[in-house]
Design brief:
Number of domains of chain A: 1
Radius of gyration of chain A: 18 Å
CATH architecture of chain A: 3-Layer(aba) Sandwich
Helix content of chain A: 25-40%
Shape of chain A: globular
CATH superfamily of chain A: NADH Oxidase
Oligomer: homodimer
Strand order of the largest sheet of chain A: 1-2-4-3
Number of strands of chain A: 5
Structural class of chain A: alpha+beta
CATH topology of chain A: NADH Oxidase
CATH class of chain A: Alpha Beta
Largest sheet of chain A: 4 strands, antiparallel
Largest interface: A-B, 74 and 73 residues
Order of helices and strands of chain A: EHHEHEHEHE
């Protein structure tokens, strides 16, 4: 299906506008997080103004024409695009570069900013480039936002046998 | 968020039931494809009865509790799961194993078969194991189902500038 569309952002005004849009959503997310708002606002969640390359990834338009493998699950094009992005991520890492996938934005507003048609959909803002270091644990763990749970909690046999979300990892709204 | 839930299928009766469910959707998809139905039915689209390991991947339940990075785009958990699956795919390949991601199924019926709760969602049936060979082109190209388009058609700068879907790759319904 090749549903991926990559828009490379080289215009600095556009970069700043994308940053403003993300920062607005960052504040809205903080608000939605309630008691963890302040803690959330202290996290580094994007590198839009600093990264070497800024790339917006969108799902293609004309999505409804593709039936193969998505008649019952039309969102499988997001799965395809995500696999492609994961390949970019790993390829970047193999070249000594870091990447961040920012999903803090209103997709309709980002679409308007980049003339993305109404039946397409932006799903990622990728910040790509040199980074000071590669920590050996996810940064949200290092920042004590969350605790990684072991794979054993996510694998069961022949039926759904999973523990409830562990405290501290799931956020319970007020 | 770690939204991935892996269910390893070791029960042979269950494996056959999953196969039956996929085969039913295969026929429905053929029907939806209209004039390419016969051609579609000749394709190998799954290896459920033959593969060494059969794994169903689902999105977690309690999804609405996670706000970070998905307040405006709740489907970002599918993106996370897809990245995890792509890692499995590449790790398998590095071990000399093949994998296929089957998405030809009715998610509600697969959920019932595996006691997956209503607020979780199966998104993949993975067929994993030894394969006779690793072709150097996608099998849907080798089978002349579709033609891969070059990356240049999927990259633009600062705005949406993409050609319409090329003939032969997009399916135009009747």
């Amino acid at each position: 299906m090749q549903p991926w569309r990559f828009i490379r952002i080289t215009d600095q005004t556009l970069r700043r506008r994308i940053h403003a849009l993300v920062d607005e959503e960052r504040l809205r997310t903080a608000d939605a997080l309630g008691e963890r708002a302040r803690e959330f606002l202290a996290l580094k969640v994007e590198g839009i103004l600093d990264c070497a390359e800024l790339i917006v990834v969108a799902l293609s338009n004309g999505r409804e024409r593709y039936v193969f493998g998505r008649r019952t699950m039309p969102h499988m094009d997001l799965a395809s695009v995500s696999c492609a992005i994961q390949n970019v991520w790993l390829a970047a890492r193999a070249e000594g570069l870091g990447m961040g996938w920012v999903s803090l934005f209103d997709p309709a507003r980002l679409a308007r900013l980049l003339t993305i048609p109404a039946d397409a959909e932006p799903v990622a803002i990728l910040c790509l480039g040199p980074v000071p270091d590669f920590p050996d644990r996810p940064s949200l763990e290092l920042d004590q936002w969350t605790v990684g749970r072991p794979l054993a909690e996510f694998v069961s046999e022949n039926e759904w046998l999973f523990p409830e979300s562990a405290p501290g990892t799931a956020y319970q709204p007020k």
